[in-house]
Amino acid sequence: MSAVPPGEEFPREWSFESSLIRPYSLTGGRTRPSRSDFSMTSQVVAVPSGAPPEVDPELELILSLCARPLSVAEVASRSGFPLGVTRILLADLLDQGYVMVHTSDWERNRPDAATLRAVLDRIREL
Q: Do you know which InterPro entries this protein is assigned to (predicted)?
């Protein structure tokens, strides 16, 4: 699997599948992103800058993929990283100001798990 955005050339041949690096080493042992303000369907786009940032190759790959808006799930799929690793790396890029995340109003205002459980319990009582 090639980890190159369609229609673009990436200077390094890199594939998560052929790498011996384990996911926890890419994330520094973290299992959760530092932020929770985006979901799998949130749109992520790289912030345009004059000079390319000095970042790790994995983050550089993600930034190249995000030249145009992509969902978090698409970034994971195209990069070859597991979704959890992608969310952590995207949160790092967001914290550093290299990407912007757009989340729909529906995602921000959807009911929480407790509300959904209460509705389900009421339906079962019928």
A: DUF742
> 12-69, pLDDT tens digit by residue?
555 555 454 566 677 666 667 777 777 888 899 999 876 667 888 888 899 999 999 9
Q: Is the alpha carbon torsion for 17, 20, 21, 22 positive or negative? A: positive
**Residue at 6 is within a domain:** no
For 93-109, how does the pLDDT look when each residue is reduced to its tens digit (9 = 90+)? 998 889 998 887 766 67
For residue 67, the enclosing domain spans: 21-105
Whether 13 is in a domain gets the answer: no
- Residue 45 phi/psi, 5-degree rounding, is -140, 140
* 29 is a domain residue: yes
Alpha-carbon distance of 36 to 78, in angstroms, equals 22
